[in-house]
Amino acid sequence: MTLEEFKAELNAISTEIERTTFVQRNFFNGTPFVFRERDGDYYNFSKRIADQFNIRYTDINIVGSSRFGFSPYRFTEFSFESDIDVTICNETLFEQYFELISDYTYKLRYREIFLRKDQYNQYIKFLKYFSTGWMRPDLLPSNTVEFIEIRERWDNFFKTISYGKSEVGNYKVKAGLFKNQAYAEKYYQSSIAQLQKEIKQ
Q: Is the pTM for the entire model greater than 0.85?
């Protein structure tokens, strides 16, 4: 799909059902641009991530400019400066983190732990994503040993598959965790709806 074709399809969307279909077909279907004509490498890359978290390779997806060959939001071309944006959709894995977040929130409520203003602001930012079914480890508070370890394990793993260390090539790989596929689709449907409004302005 070219950028012009993407914009044309986007402009033709008039219902929520069409928006859902657009997201499913274009964001979660087929081999991403960065792996074009390399289906086997895409499988190996996905399986590498899945094995790390003991989940299915089908729970792994690539979005953003590395999927399309251009940014679906800024309309800029994919380049060597671009990141590889990975989504992981797995309810069991999400629940493991949810339990930790729940315990942490109770400790805050009962003043067993305290946050500086900057830490509090970061936590609120984390919760805004988390409440939509998206867990971003890079936004986890950094004032507990558990969260520091989670962030470090997450970051360290994705460093091992970045910059020429995996099938994807010489790019930085980043990832976020969705509760399930439905929440991921809902997030991108919302993004697309907002993009449509901006284009029409």
A: yes
In the chain, the percentage of residues whose pLDDT exceeds 90 is 70
Runs of H (alpha helix) within 13-90: 16-27, 39-53, 65-68
75: left (phi over 0), alpha (psi -120 to 50) or beta: left
Residues 6+ away with beta carbon under 8 Å from 35: 41, 42, 45, 62, 167, 168
- Which has more confidence, 8 or 145? 8
Cα(89)–Cα(56) distance, rounded to whole angstroms?
9
H or E element that contains 97? helix 91-109
Tracing tokens 């942490």 back to the chain, one arrives at 104
Query: Exposed, middle or buried, 2 (CB in 10 Å: 0-12/13-18/19+)?
Result: exposed
